[in-house]
Amino acid sequence: MEESSAEVPDSSTQDDVPPLAVKDVNVLLERERSEGISSPSRDDDSTLLNPGTHSSILEDNTKSESGLPETLPLNGHKSCGLCFSDGKCRIDYILVYRKSSSQSEKREIFERNIRAEGLQMEKEASVTNSDVIFLKLHAPWDVLCRYAELMNIRMPFRRKIFYMHRRHKFMSRMEKRINKFRGWLPRKPMKFDNDTLPDLEENESFTAPFSRSRIHHFIIHNKDTFFNNATRSRIVHHILQRVKYEEGKNKMGLNRLLSNNSYEAAFPLHEGRYHSKNSIRTHGAENHRHLLYECWAWWGVWYKYQPLDLIRRYFGEKIGLYFAWLGWYTGMLFPAALVGLFVFLYGLFTLEHCQVSKEICQATDIIMCPICDQYCPYLRLSDSCIYAKVTHLFDNGATVFFAVFMAVWATVFLEFWKRRRAVLAYDWDLIDWEEEEEEIRPQFEAKYSKKERMNPISGKPEPYQAFTDKYSRLVVSTSGIFFMILVVIAAVFGIVIYRVITVSTFAAFGWALIRNNSQVATTGTAVCINFCVIMLLNVLYEKVALLLTNLEQPRTESEWENSFTLKMFLFQFVNLNSSTFYIAFFLGRFTGRPGAYLRLINRWKLEECHPSGCLIDLCMQMGIIMVLKQTWNNFMELGYPLIQNWWTRRRLRREHGQKAKAGFPQWERDYNLQPMNAYGLFDEYLEMILQFGFTTIFVAAFPLAPLLALLNNIIEIRLDAYKFVTQWRRPLPSQAKDIGIWYGILEGIGILSVITNAFVIAVTSDFIPRLVYAYKYGPCAGQGRAGEGCMMGYVNASLSVFQVNDFEKRSQPRTTGSELIGEAVKYCRYRDYREPPDSAEPYSYTLQFWHVLAARLAFIIVFEHMVFAIKTLIAYLIPDLPKDLRDRMRREKYLIQEMMYEAELERLQKERNEKKKKKDRAHHKEWP
């Protein structure tokens, strides 16, 4: 069904339809059903082809179209804005231009050539601006058939029938019983009612490339709905891309006319309004847009599955694949979020039994050295009690399991997505689809038009870019990329300096709450500033990526898109994660020790970790950045177009009050909506890919990341749906068989996540030091076990002793610490494995330090090899194509061969009959 009104037209519209076009076909179909010749049901087991009488009628209809309206009017009204002024010809495409434009000659030639191709046109001035002209285009049936054949568009020719093997009969009976039992249960809340969604019959049929010579083999119940609106728009766009506007071998195509401002806009129409006064349950959907809004874009159906077939039919396969991938990713986040929540709850429930947290909370007699120069006071270790408990929530015995689980999860997600994509590609007729040879970009053509060479595919001369020019531009572009990465590093360096300076400032702050939590306050404000820097640099990076991509002069649009995608992903990935990498792997690692601190520019002492560890800083960084960025992105995605469209409506109501109340035609309403982003789905994919990286790369430090991502994506799906259905012009329905370059990026992130999580567990967390202590130095040393009882004394063993008289002059605290213990502090503790000041080699590394370092390196190697082996094994065991899909593809291939065979038999039979008739006529002539 293309539209509900098209399926059940008005009686007034039925009167205009010639009997031969609709009535006879319907009578024939009814006769076929009664005779058991052919049935549209899934259980149909009839002959492959429809009878010859059916084909003859369809052939007669295609030969003679006089008096047949090309489309049925919507709801019997021509004022709906979806048809020409005659109320019959459906508008398949809209071009918008201004009369005052200086490109009128090119437009006239272009429009004359459009008519020559068989398209019908109608012009109408804007209701709100007489200078704006809308050019409405309609493709008649013969044009659609001709170009559907040229474009190899696959159309339904046979209902899908699958035969079950004998050994599956028992399973079939069991399935019937289970389904009968399910019928007694309440309906599944996440699925839509079958009565709500239209019968998308092409998904229940085998398809083959359309051919006018074999048109009678295809399932054509109604010529007006045989090609759906998305296909019609795609055919018209294909024609417009190949129509000339000026004499010259490359002076053709709508894109060039849009780039030189001959036309202001070009878009297919939405199918009417998306909202209605009547409920869809009682009155049905008015059109597909209304149906998509009620069943997909409305926030009240956030818990339901997406109607992917309907999305594909309305917006095309490319956008359908994006939402299919987003839904698949969101669904796969459920197990990851549950396991991450389990890890968090495990830490919460075992908090009271954590020996390390107990020792830190009870260590009132252990005095820690100041964390900054002069202004920071001595602290009791017990002051870090709350931070030690929070650290245990994320850094506990289940962390390693969760890191391995997420590495395996990433592989399973990608492998099963390949299977899901294959099923969608088959159902949407994309298995054998190949992208057409692209046109050369106008910028490339203008730059290199003087030098040409023969295209080995088309055999035609085309502009050519010399090898030296291409790679010199590539070198300059690569240099620009490295320079921008250095800008990111400089920004991180600035954040580091801010943290170093601010921790001293907060330590001397007048407010006791800030002064006592100076390190946490420093981390929190640094993360917020870092977020602001990230968002500002993102704007700069987009402009730089655009400049560098144009500098490379890519030959085609897909080459331009891939180059721009890689640059933007690299820029934003480094920009988003650089500070996180610093906190995870560098914070507190190269500070030196009390009395011999390493300094930045020989001035600022590098920041140390909190007495409870560095993991709390990493958790804060990830949590704040993830929440703020996702909130900001969601606001900008929906808030910006909402505000712009609201302002446009407000202006139109103010300037054209009465006309605005009466309502504008559909093309006027769509023109006032926001156009789809110039980069297509790039921003949507980039946002989700960066989130995927944030969810997997440092997930060992922040197990709640998948849960936050899941909650965001549930909102993201409906937000994007609302944006596409209500706030944007309808994008051109285009085809794609996969998600393109993004899949390779996802695989790269999956590999990187294994490495980073290995380092987070081994270096950032205290998992390895605790393990070494339990097996080598603790009460259970040599017993081969490592329970909580084996961790007694770990805190004392992990802290080294420093004599305060050995402080550098510029590091000497201004307080003596007498307020803590009643007298001046003589010794303080710090996190490290060093000899005491009274040993033979004071402050040198202990043997425990080297044991811990060796264990960390060994863990990284073992963890990486083990996880990569598991990932490789899983990828090998999971086939890319499901077995039932392979069977369906083989059956479809068989049926297509049968159709071609029978078509050839029909042709030979027709030739024999004609020869026989000629022979009979000659015989009658010779008879006296």
Automatic annotation (TrEMBL):
Residues 311-892 form the Anoctamin transmembrane domain. It is found in: Cell membrane; Membrane. It comes from the Eukaryota. The chain crosses the membrane at residues 322-349, 398-417, 521-541, 569-588, 689-711, 739-763, 853-878. Residues 47-59 have a biased composition (Polar residues). Belongs to the anoctamin family. Residues 1-70 are annotated as: Disordered. PANTHER family: ANOCTAMIN (PTHR12308), ANOCTAMIN-4 (PTHR12308:SF28). One of its GO terms (cellular component) is plasma membrane. Pfam families: Anoct_dimer, Anoctamin. Residues 29-45 have a biased composition (Basic and acidic residues). Residues 83-308 form the Anoctamin dimerisation domain. It is a multi-pass membrane protein. Its main location: membrane. This is Anoctamin. Keywords: Cell membrane, Coiled coil, Glycoprotein, Membrane, Transmembrane, Transmembrane helix. Residues 891-925 form a coiled coil. One of its GO terms (molecular function) is intracellularly calcium-gated chloride channel activity.
